[in-house]
Amino acid sequence: MQRLVKTADEINKIEKASRIVAETLISLEKFMVEGTTTEEIDKFAEDFILTKGATPSFKGYTVGKLIYPSSLCISINEEVIHGIPSKNRRLKNGDIVSLDCGACLNGYHGDSTVTYMVGEVSNDIKQLLKVTEESLYKGIEQAVARNKVYDISRAVQTHAEKYGYGVNRDFCGHGIGSNLHEYPSIPNFVPALLHRQSFPNSKLLTGMAIAIEPMIHQGTKDCTILDNGWTVVTNDGLPAAHFEHTVIVGEKEPLVLTLRN
Q1: Which of 20, 71, 215, 223 has the largest count of CB atoms under 10 Å?
Q2: Are 215 and 188 in contact (CB under 8 A)?
Q3: Which residues, including other chains, have CB under 8 Å from residue 122's CB and lie 6 or more apart?
Q4: Mean pLDDT, rounded, for 178-195
Q5: Distance from C-alpha of 212 to C-alpha of 243, rounded to nearest angstrom
Q6: How confident is the model at residue 193, as a pLDDT?
Q7: Dist. CA 142–CA 149, nearest whole Å
């Protein structure tokens, strides 16, 4: 089992990988224009990460017999997560595009997601993105020593549901370090009593590295995995937004490693 509390050297390595992730996402904003293919976005991101001496965390990621083929997850509109880039998928005016990026440097990972807008989008969609990002920061505020995982979960869920949005129950945040996904799971909701064994309410310790990532649906929380085995879509066809940061749990305040500024 991975060490929950990271050493200063490990945190330094995670921070350097996270910086590359943040720089990649900043660089991709200029591609958020009508007509760009998702394959073009993915190719640029992969080249950018490689030129920094890192490798894309997602490319070749294996779940069972499934192998993820790309460097980014690019999820558009009703796609919640794990959208696979394609030369045939072009961005359109009014799209929202979630770019999930991971990079591995010197054996340690950083992970972050941002949802960008393409051209003009409705005020309802702007609010969805605003509230989802606010939910992320509400969760991050709780990432301090002696709190527990559900403090993060409750903060995310309460803020999103205040606006009537659906909080995804099928996927969640995670620990991070020498593996992309480590213990503990960080759900964006407080599980019902009968399901808490699947999402332990672990105590947060100073020096833990976690990825907090609200996935918020404009409509219901229900979703489905497409036949490609990866891409998750909302059942009602309404859009979803996704924001994520890699965070170090602090004694008094958290340290966000993937800030894009």
Answers
A1: 215
A2: yes
A3: 94
A4: 93
A5: 8
A6: 83
A7: 9
- According to DSSP, residue 31 is labeled G
pLDDT in tens, 232-256: 999 999 999 999 999 999 999 999 9
Which two structure tokens, joined as six digits, stand for 186? 């960080």
Residue 16 has pLDDT above 80, yes or no: yes
Reported pTM = 0.96
Cα 226 to the center of its chain, rounded Å: 19
The reported pLDDT for the residue numbered 195 is 75
CB atoms near residue 213 (< 10 Å): 26
Where do the H-state alpha helices sit in the chain?
8-28, 38-51, 123-141, 149-162
Kindly list the structural domains of the chain, giving each domain's residue range(s) and its CATH number in brackets, ordered by start.
8-256 (3.90.230.10)
Given the structure tokens 């990460």, which residue do they identify? Answer: 49
Nearest to 210, CA basis, from 158, 169, 260, 153 = 153
Confidence of residue 2 (pLDDT cuts 50, 70, 90): low
In the numeric block, which tokens belong to residue 231? 């891409």
Is there a cis peptide before residue 200, judged by omega within 30 degrees of 0? no
Residues in the chain: 261
1: pLDDT strictly greater than 80 = no
Give the position of tokens 């409509």. 219
